[in-house]
């Protein structure tokens, strides 16, 4: 039954030939691929709520589909708006509207705030220069956009991730973006490639990519809920899974299950790492689909 639901949820609203529509669809499919992936430690997936009480797989899919127009609008902005400041402020406004759309679709639950930021920058960067969709190039362009100040954005939002950045002096989602998404380009995508090359299943390869990010990311979602001690446990637990062969190996899977149990006990969920996995899956999809960007 879950498999049928996953197939239905992964069918986006409309796949038009227009470049912005196509890239917007890819973002939504990356988000649904991320939330469906299982078993993810502490995170919502198709089998479990993880460490959450207000989220589940169905709600996350509803949220992702509701955000498709937001990502398409950002993709159009990347094509149509060339001055960098104007572009940054335009996608900032679109992102804030998208957050309101998300909250309306989920009954006020934050499902994808971080993803709107990260994937929004990346889809804008992709359509800005569609002739160069190499992950490093798209991420670098996204970083350049993120470094431009949006004068219309609130100085402080009150979000838990923002407070964790202030409390623990970490860069968070903003720092990751402004640096050109190093945990996507230098950590998640290389691990995804290595796992595939050694013959791991696609599920195991994606889980390993997630674990590689978790092993070193200062995840503000974890810091906000559990502080530095929970972050240290998450990072060491993720490294242990990889040390024992990752999600494709029996010992690795045992360590993965133990890490999942521990994060649920701690009531922490690596949402920042999940957003970066979705970003990696989006860039991987762009690289592998070999779009003919002369059409649409």
From TrEMBL:
Keywords: ATP-binding, Glycosyltransferase, Nucleotide-binding, Transferase
Reaction catalysed by this enzyme: 3'-dephospho-CoA + ATP = 2'-(5''-triphospho-alpha-D-ribosyl)-3'-dephospho-CoA + adenine
Job of this protein: Involved in the formation of 2-(5''-phosphoribosyl)-3'-dephosphocoenzyme-A, the prosthetic group of the acyl-carrier protein of the malonate decarboxylase.
Protein name in UniProt: Probable 2-(5''-triphosphoribosyl)-3'-dephosphocoenzyme-A synthase
EC annotation from Swiss-Prot or TrEMBL: 2.4.2.52
One MF annotation (Gene Ontology) recorded for this entry: glycosyltransferase activity
Family: Belongs to the CitG/MdcB family.
InterPro entries for the chain: CitG (IPR002736), TriPribosyl-deP-CoA_syn (IPR017555)
Keyword Transferase in annotation: yes
Record-linked HAMAP family: MdcB
